[in-house]
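Structure first, sequence second, as always.
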């Protein structure tokens, strides 16, 4: 695939791990027609390091994710909020020649993460975007272990949200259009499950939700969900829904003091905490493996596009 960017060269603050294995994300499908190297959930072994690298050495296992760089000088960067840096570099917006669908990646050490020994490279890769996204909600917005956390959708993001929230100590409620996912939701840690297809109201007396993580690829029926939100509860719309506008009934928001909280992937501090938390508590993505070749990539992308993925694709090169 051609690229508008010249190939990156190693610098004093760069390292070059092979990216296999890597995991697919829904945003890969969003950018599939762009002239760029796809993939932003990778993990591998450092083969070379620049002279200025201090935290990683040749042979270390490391992973990378959605963010590539920041200025390290603005108020957001100084507050460990580099995800809001005015000159931040995100996947799909810059560095178009850098992606995990490649033989090697040259990446800044500042945005690479050592893989805990308890995690295989494939485990780490599958957490680097979806895992960081849902963990960010729990850690940044002070979700408490006594809270009830609702997860809408049991897919790539949702199945990780259930696990992280349950291990966080929360009571987890899953909402899915498919009744068939009830058993799996329970295995992942949900204490309640509600099938929503064709439903207009939830049962009377249902305990309210403090935090609602919306992980579906389409907007939900807000008149269905807002009545079950606890006063001052928070809704987190986490997925890309094309160019569609977010439309929520005003009065339901006002009367319940419900907050709609924007959230994106985690900062570097929280990505490190996420990996350590996953290693300590046994949080793992449910994955399907594909061969790391053209046919395997096309098959995985097709399954992702058709909603057949259960729940993250991991592509591995043959030994």
């Amino acid at each position: 695939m051609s690229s508008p960017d010249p190939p990156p060269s190693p610098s004093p603050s760069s390292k070059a791990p092979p990216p296999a294995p890597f995991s697919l994300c829904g945003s890969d499908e969003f950018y599939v027609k762009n002239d760029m190297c796809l993939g932003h959930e990778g993990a591998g072994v450092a083969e070379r390091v620049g002279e200025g690298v201090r935290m990683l050495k040749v042979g270390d296992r490391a992973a990378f994710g959605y963010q590539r760089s920041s200025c390290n000088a603005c108020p957001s960067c100084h507050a460990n909020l580099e995800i809001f840096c005015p000159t931040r570099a995100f996947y799909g917006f810059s560095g178009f020649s850098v992606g995990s669908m490649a033989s090697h990646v040259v990446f800044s050490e500042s945005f690479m993460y050592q893989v805990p020994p308890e995690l295989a490279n494939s485990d780490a890769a599958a957490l680097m975007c979806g895992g960081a996204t849902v963990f960010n909600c729990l850690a940044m917005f002070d979700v408490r272990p006594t809270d009830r956390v609702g997860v809408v959708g049991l897919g790539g993001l949702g199945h990780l949200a259930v696990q992280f929230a349950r291990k966080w100590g929360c009571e987890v409620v899953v909402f899915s259009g498919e009744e068939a996912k009830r058993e799996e939701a329970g295995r992942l840690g949900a204490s309640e499950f509600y099938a929503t297809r064709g439903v207009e109201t939830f049962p009377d007396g249902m305990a309210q939700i403090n935090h609602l993580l919306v992980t579906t690829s389409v907007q939900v029926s807000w008149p269905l969900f807002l009545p079950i939100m606890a006063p001052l509860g928070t809704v987190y719309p986490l997925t890309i829904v094309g160019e569609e506008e977010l439309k929520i009934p005003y009065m339901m928001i006002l009367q319940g003091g419900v907050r709609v909280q924007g959230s994106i992937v985690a900062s570097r501090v929280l990505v490190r905490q996420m990996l350590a938390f996953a290693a300590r508590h046994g949080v793992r993505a449910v994955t399907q493996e594909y061969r790391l070749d053209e046919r395997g990539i096309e098959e995985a992308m097709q399954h992702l596009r058709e909603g057949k993925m259960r729940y993250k694709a991991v592509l591995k090169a043959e030994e």
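Margin note: The two ends are 25 Å apart (CA to CA).
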